[in-house]
Amino acid sequence: MPDPEARRWVGKRYKRKEDLRLLIGEGKFVDDIQLPKMKHAAIIRSPYPHALIKNIDTTQAEKLPGVRGILTGQDVKEMSKPFPCGVPIPPKYYSCAVDKVRYVGEPVAVVVADSRYIAEDALDLIQVDYEPLPVVMDIEEAAEPDAPVLHDNIGSNIYSHRLMQYGEPAKAFEEADLLVKGKFLFPKYGSTPIETYAVVASYNPVNQEFVIYNNYQGPFVNHSLVALALGIPENKMRWIVPTDIGGGFGTKTGVFPYIALIALASKKTGMTVKWIEDRREHLLASATGTDRVTYMEAAVKRDGTILALKDKAMDNTGGYIRAPEPGCAYRSTGNHTGAYQIRHLDREVMVVGTNKCLTSPNRGYTCQELYFSVERLVDMVAAQLGMDPAEIRFKNFIQPDQFPYTTATGGIYDAGNYQKAFQKALDIVDYPKWRQEQEKARQQGRYIGIGIATIVDPSVTNIAYVTTALTPEQRAKGHPKSGSGESMTIKMDPLGQVHVIACTNPQGQGHETVISQIVADELGIDPDGITVSNVVDTHDRVYTITTGSYSSRFASVGTNALVNATRKLKDKLFKIAAHLLEVSPDELVLENQKFHVKDQPEKSIAVRHVAGTAHWHQTALPEGMDVGLFASSLITMPTSKPPDELDRVDSSNTYGFCCEVIVVEIDPETCEIKFHKWASVHDSGTVLNPMILEGQVMGSITHGLGGALYEEFAYDENGQCLTASFQDYLCPTSMEVPDIDIGHVETPSPFTALGSKGAGEASCESVPVAVANAIADALAPLGVVINELPLTPSKIWHLIKEAKAKQA
Amino acid sequence: MQLKGKYEFNGTQQQVWDLFTNPESLAQAMPGCQELRETGPGKYDALMKIGIAAVKGTYTGKFEIADPDPPNRYQLIGEGSGSPGFVKGTTDIQLTGSNDKTIVTYQGEVQVGGLIAGVGQRMISGIAKMMLNQFFKKMKKELKASGSAGS
Amino acid sequence: MAQRQRINLKVNGVEYEGEVEPRKLLVDFLREDLELLGTHVGCEHGVCGACTILLNGKAVRSCLMLAVQADGAELTTIEGLAQGAQLHPIQEAFHEHHGLQCGFCTPGMLLTSHEFLQENPSPTREEAKKAISGVLCRCTGYKQVIDSVMAAAETMKNE
Amino acid sequence: MKPAAFDYIAPKTVEEVISLLTTHEDEAKILAGGQSLMPIMNFRLGRPGLLIDINGLDELDYIKQQDDHLLIGGLTRERTVERSPLVRDLCPLLSQAISFVGHTAIRNRGTVGGSLVHADPSGEIPTAFCALDGRVKAVGPDGERWIDPGEFFLTFLTTSLEPTELLVEVKVPVLPQGTGWSFMELSRRVGDFAIIGVATLLFMNGDGTCREARIALGGVAPTPFRAEEAEEVLAGQAIGEELISRAGELAGEAADAEDDYHASAEYRQEMAKIMVSRSLRQALARTGKGN
């Protein structure tokens, strides 16, 4: 690692290159793509949560002038296969309902017409006869043997089920002085990026090749899965993601079925087809995080030491299950015990289906679900022991000298100083002062509460984790998976300018900017002069199966690949320069764009002459050396290994730390919540660009706040989604976000070239439970139990009322 | 969504029973009912035009007067659908008379689905109640009109 | 009536003439007919604010207006803020203070801020916060957006 | 989410509008600010056959004082009324209520007349209008008529305006010096539909007692309504904490709230009490007679 002091650009508040197109309306999003022969698609969707499709009559719609063709479920069944999915028995999940609908909003047919207006007119003319079936909406009921079954080929609504033991939980539970348990309900909430899903597909019947523009979050595994579903060679399906994606946060991994659907619509109609999801479609039927029911119990010593956890977590992936699920249940395996030294774990995992919308990762990918139970339970333990919730966390933290720390479940925590970061947060809010304030307030009948969450934020997914959905025996039979690789290519042109080719297709994280900063430091040049092209094009980009922007990969494995590629290029420059100066490379110094021999500044050659030689005078290069100047690196994190026979896996490859300390006051009459103070302290290793980091942190805090108080995909008991507009699905506006003090601690990661790691998801994992803990703390004297979200004033008011009734 | 209510009619239980089982008066009272066709004993097809604010829609539906126990109770089973969505419901209609006054109580479960359920949840239950009120008010008028009422 | 109607309007100082179906939304007219792709569609029911433009100087949702209604109007879209290579002070401020990430809501943020700063050249932070509350952003958490608006107010005052 | 096809016409005079309404009664729909109508049409919940765009009727865009009243043209934008110094000075309750409507861009387009005609039970303008005993002037085929306070809102999204009538003017009183006023609301987020909105007015006697109290609630019944029993306990009294909470109780009992996803009926009922009391306290403080 280069000496941090030597860095001119990394760690600086360098302004974003991306802004210069986005600020003037020159960004390139999928909806901005105009192609010849381009027609527009609209999708007819099921109004029923569970029903047989008896008949679809499209005759009237076909007659409508401007309609170019209609694709129904039957077409889809004939033209494609179900998507593969990493569970023992995958449901028959096509890009469109075939003979049965399983959630409100499920695609039933696609109309292609000259305009979206006409396409929607045609939807009105399509007659679909449904035969409604009984619905199942509750997670636990769905797992019951007598529940209505969604998929006959599975025979139950259980998509995935595993029992896992780590350490000796039974023994630990015997040794415990105290057992504390709770039931925790995490709601179905999501990302709702302001840009919805978008696909433009064209099919060439002669070379049988698809070209598909889309805003998927990478090639990732789904490029292969869609090719398999379409039954075509992978290289006959070219995906292009333009430079800009209007936010993703995990949800845009759910675009892939629509990529297949619109591709088929193009194939059937012979048109280039554009489909832009509208907001109602997005809220009904795109993808959400999973709702989860967790039963969790802690085995505790009287001194506050948490010996073991026993939990049963039930996730709900809705009407079907699709990649990257069942990741929801297994993605956080390595960090299941959070920031604590908990060596024993008894874990039951179940993924079920109900008649709800399907799922995808949502910023933090089920760590918010995990920590909602872990961090609530830690508070409950503290309460039972009469311990301060801050104290019990210090008691159980992993110690700074224990890193790299291997968790009971196989996670390898690279670095951290949890005590330091947490203490910083407590100092920022002046924790002792607020405990006193709380005492005073309680005597006046006011509800002040302090909420804490201290969590470990995993970044860089190891694709191997998903195979823990299979038993070790099942895994042994199949092909192992592992890795988290990313790719970067750097080149220097004949006049000595640097261009970087990336394929991380960010959704606003500023990779072009940070790439420029890093390369500038590595090569000692000015970042302004560096250009970066960062689009996905599966035909002309070099990438790996794990390439993309998800699980905060860029700052860890992305920077590793970039630094590696840049150093390869630098090494080649040194070799050429040395060859031209007839010295050995280690005699050379690179300074101010010149190579010169140590202690002989006059014996030098400018970098651009070296570059020029590589391109213009190719035979002057050292014998056997490739001509030109470029270098690529495709590397994975070394710890990205398959699960062992005990189901231990380093499910992510770097682990940051994040803590929230939040002071709230609840209006005793209206139950509205006011934030008095909020500290959010983060350790994501080396800070690459503090300005961008602050933006990422504020974004994830706000997204977490949405889950805590405002956002939910709500359904009635009959399976109707009640929140299909932005009037009812409530994203926080600027007015809902209080002032927040953000702090940072930098513990460089030994596993990454610059010591940096992911940062943009952490608070989305910690804020929901921290706010819940604050509200629980405020209402503790009333004995109110807080175990669900979002905590609306109406809900809190009823909880208080019930608690008071009990007390009376 | 659960719906229940109670209305007092100025008529004997038999008179009110006749009213509540008479398709003509039901058609008159049903908000926006354009036509009502008997398709079998106690079974009807209906065409309704309902407009609230700009939300106008034509709904085709059927309803049934099930297991009648004259003149005490019957079950009203109905469903209708139109471009804004669909409605399904089952309601118990109970009549209890004392001299020339009759209390009609209804208690039922109504499902609303489709477009309106997803984007209009804020007002659905209120509007459902409103339309029931309109229905019972009109039924009272019908009772008067039929001239059979005591008052 | 239902057949296409001729409309004349000025967008970013340029005269346009178009022929539209009455039902065509203004935002679709800007994007499809005038190829001004900077204005983004986010919800089509007036909540997210991404499609906010200036109609005769006033911020409006272009998804809640018909193109025919813009006949004779003067519009400003995000493409109309910068003078050639010279960014508008509000754009400069968003660049300086990282007031955007994915950039999708940014057109609405910029034009909303523009109207606000015309009406209120020296706002308090709380006023700026309220002013942008009609535009949803999922990336920034708004803090840096508010920083940007406040900074823009400063530079514009000293101009 | 694109509207279904419709005929469109943008008349220049009220007369034209009326004759169009008369000939196309059933199919026609007036397009004013469109901030409620356009979403309904984009969702295809509403599919009017003919859209009569009245945005060209400049004659209906005005705010003027006439003796002890303010006359507001039916097409006057909410934002114009909100920012009007005349309204702020003479009828601050109305400016205050409007400031709760959606967000600036919505109020720039939305009109006072449109909001009243849409008659959303939780609408801020309807609630304030109700407290102000406002009147509206409607023009129809048989000429114009004034619709009296309490006779305009019938039920959910329904007014006593005939399908052939156009709301052309809104009349609200000038509030005498020393009148206590307050508009408050609870909503999930700033700018959202009110879970409950409360508008209160306290007209005072010289001796500091309350001559007349007005309490209007929105969002807790099929229409905004006046809590008359609560008003009566305050009339003629020197208002204190006891009376205020009594009035709150009575207002709460008068509410007839419904459940929705955002708040239970029971919560709304309870909030009616609390918000009315809070609003009365604020209004009282504004009379300068608060203690």
List the helices and strands and how they pair.
The complex is a heterotetramer of chains A (808), B (151), C (159) and D (291).
Chain A: H1 19-22, E1 38-45, E2 51-57, H2 59-63, E3 67-72, H3 73-79, E4 100-101, E5 107-113, H4 116-125, E6 127-132, H5 139-142, E7 158-166, H6 169-175, E8 178-186, E9 198-204, E10 209-214, H7 222-230, E11 237-241, H8 256-269, E12 272-276, H9 279-285, E13 291-300, E14 306-316, H10 327-330, E15 344-352, H11 367-385, H12 389-396, E16 405-406, E17 412-413, H13 418-429, H14 431-443, E18 447-461, H15 472-477, E19 486-492, E20 498-502, H16 511-523, E21 531-534, E22 536-537, H17 554-581, E23 588-591, E24 594-597, E25 600-606, H18 607-616, E26 630-635, E27 652-666, E28 673-683, H19 690-710, E29 741-744, H20 762-778, H21 793-807
Helix pairs in contact in A: 7-8, 11-12, 11-20, 13-14, 16-17, 17-18, 19-20
Chain B: E1 2-9, H1 13-20, H2 23-29, E2 33-40, E3 43-52, E4 55-69, E5 73-82, E6 85-98, E7 101-113, H3 115-119, H4 121-145
Antiparallel strand pairs in B: 1-7, 2-3, 3-4, 4-5, 5-6, 6-7
Helix pairs in contact in B: 2-4
Chain D: E1 7-9, H1 14-24, E2 28-31, H2 37-42, E3 50-53, E4 63-66, E5 69-73, H3 78-83, H4 85-90, H5 92-98, H6 104-109, H7 112-118, H8 124-131, E6 135-140, E7 143-147, E8 153-155, E9 158-159, E10 166-173, E11 180-186, E12 196-204, E13 210-218, E14 225-226, H9 228-234, H10 241-254, H11 265-287
Parallel strand pairs in D: 1-3, 2-3
Antiparallel strand pairs in D: 4-5, 5-10, 6-7, 6-10, 8-9, 11-12, 12-13, 13-14
Helix pairs in contact in D: 5-8, 9-10, 10-11
Domain module count of chain C: 2
Mean pLDDT of chain C, to the nearest integer, reads 97
**Element-level helix/strand string of chain D:** EHEHEEEHHHHHHEEEEEEEEEHHH
| Residue windows where pLDDT falls under 50 for at least 5 positions of chain C | none
Structural commentary:
The complex is a heterotetramer of chains A (808), B (151), C (159) and D (291). Chain A is α+β, with helices and mostly antiparallel strands. Chain A has 21 helices and 29 strands. Chain A is globular, with a radius of gyration of 28 Å. With 151 residues, chain B is of the alpha+beta class. In chain B, 30% of the residues lie in helices and 52% in strands. Chain B contains 4 helices and 7 strands. Chain B has a 7-stranded antiparallel sheet with strand order 1-7-6-5-4-3-2. The mean pLDDT of chain B is 89. In chain C, helix 2 (89-96) crosses helix 5. Chain C has 5 helices and 5 strands. Chain C has helices at 26-33, 89-96, 106-119, 125-131, 143-157; strands spanning 5-11, 14-20, 52-55, 58-61, 74-76. Chain C folds into 2 domains: 5-80, Ubiquitin-like (UB roll), CATH 3.10.20; 89-157, [2Fe-2S]-binding domain (DNA polymerase, domain 1, Orthogonal Bundle). Chain D has 3 domains: 7-56, Uridine Diphospho-n-acetylenolpyruvylglucosamine Reductase, domain 2 (2-Layer Sandwich), CATH 3.30.43.10; 59-172, 2-Layer Sandwich (Uridine Diphospho-n-acetylenolpyruvylglucosamine Reductase, domain 3); 180-287, Enolase-like, domain 1 (2-Layer Sandwich). In chain D, helix 5 runs antiparallel to helix 8 and helix 10 runs antiparallel to helix 11. Chain D is globular. Classes of the chains: A alpha+beta (808), B alpha+beta (151), C alpha+beta (159), D alpha+beta (291). Chains in contact: A-B, A-C, A-D, B-D, C-D. At the A-C interface, helix 1 and helix 19 of A face helix 2, helix 3 and helix 5 of C.
